[in-house]
Amino acid sequence: MIELSLCSKKAEPLVVLCLGAHSDDIEIGCGGTLLHLKAAFPRLKFHWVVLSASGVRGEEAARAADLFTAGCEKQVVLKNYRDGFLPYDGGEVKSFFEELKGQISPDIIFTHWRGDAHQDHRLVSELTWNTFRNHLILEYEVPKYDGDIGRPNLFVPLEGPLCENKVGYLFQVFDSQRSKRWFDRETFLGLMRIRGMESNSPSGYAEAFHAHKVVIHSGT
After folding, report:
1. N or C: which end of the chain has fewer CB within 10 A?
2. Is pLDDT of 4 > 90?
3. Which helix (H) or strand (E) element contains residue 115?
């Protein structure tokens, strides 16, 4: 098991860009890792972007962003593109990504996995790579009915209480999703348990990501 560390960034703010197609994608896909980064880095700056977050879903997205980034500097952007139709609004979404590129240069970008079965998720992943071409991009996974979970190659071990906090926040905020069969405590904890087993996490829990391109510098 090869380990990588971000410890060299502790002397300055770690800038994190979180991209989600829908309200709850970021939180489900990498919420535990974000809470872990908050604990590890005293100076953390979040740019939190949700592309389809209107009405009640927008209110939930705003509350979730506040919970997961509490105590950190943050900028939250909630757009109102139509759920399920992002590829058909591709020109507008692409223009938004280009604007975003001119505003920030993040140290880490969390985005959707390019192999996700949901068309909105795939577009966000594609535009992330098209727009941010010299950044560390980690693609998170969102479990769903389609059965599209892949074979990730980067793992973040998580302590058990932190995993409980993640799931607690999900159920605290996303009331509109609680009636759906996939929105389930055992589902969220179960996936983290599987990824913990695969990565030999001391706690037994982890979140996993697809890292398609990683450049390692010597630090000199």
Report:
1. C
2. no
3. none
